[in-house]
Fold AAA family ATPase.
Amino acid sequence: MRLDTFRVEGFRSIRDATLELRDGVTLLIGANGAGKSNVIGAMELLGRVVDNSFSEELLRMGGVRAQLHASPTGDDAETICLSVASKPRRSVLHDGDRFVNRYSVCLQASDDDAPLIRETTEIHNIDRYKTGLKTPYGLSDRSVIRRRAEESSGITAATHIAAMAGGVRVFHVDDTSPQAPALQRADEADNLTLHDDAANLAPVLLRLKTHDRPRYDRIVRSVRVVAPFFDDFVLQPLGGHVQLRWRQIGMDRVFHGRFLSSGTLRFISLATLLLQDSMPGVVVLDEPELGLHPVAISQLAELLTAAAEHVQVVAATQSVPLLSCFAVDDVVLVDRTGGTTTLAAPPVEALDAWLDEYTTGELWEMNLLGGMPGPDIVPPPREQGAAS
């Protein structure tokens, strides 16, 4: 089930903004401080509500009140509301009618700043009715829709909506220090899908190597593109645990994962995430290009595109090379006006004269897309047939 929109109200710099998700890759671009990370943070909070880890996450961030939107006009938010709507899908059980699922959750602070949530679900047959069937749930410290889904004996509206909202997952693979989760010993059995911090990277790779060799080999080939010296992973369980190790081409010595460069380790985590056989419905990344060589960024773009054949991908980026691998239609501009984050599509029609001659990254660099600080730098369109 693909998402159509994600709406955020009252969260940090976001007073009220709606992200329209592309079917494949959605790229968030904007100046520093525009609010890209806040959009990502809101998406992470949504996923944590449905898996009931939101209390710990909000505590880590300083409590509910610290996350509320503070308006320059004094009209501060009292709640954080997050809403998602699915793209229309046909139901074989209802003569092929198209249905849209919607889920919203509002978070507020208790007297001691503990988070409380109020959820609402909606099932809408858009071919037969003007409005959908809404089901509001009472104030709670746990996700009611999650409990309803777990109690269901089959596929129900609750299971559909819980999967839709809970399928939004933000991944953080930027820690490449010796203490990085990806480098630690991990339970061999914890191998079904990559954790959001890549802590079970070695077990997932071992499972793919054992049970899905073509997929594993594709990961290895992708790593060799950005690290030609890389031969293969060495994944040998010991006492029920496995740790990331690898071998270099032309050498018998086995290296610990900490001897990989930061960029290589990060790319291995990204390649495993985007090529694995079990991914969440929406994969969210914040500046995945950090620390990567231009060749690795090009390979990353291919991996993002490949993953988007099966799931939706949202990535915040400031990389001109990465942007240049995608179309203008894949871009969402994140701006900050009057202290509030806004989201908008680029002016595609106004760019007709440039689209055939400049890449998306070049257009952004010239500030033709928007989402770039500083004065406009607008060169004339290249003449047809001129050298680029």
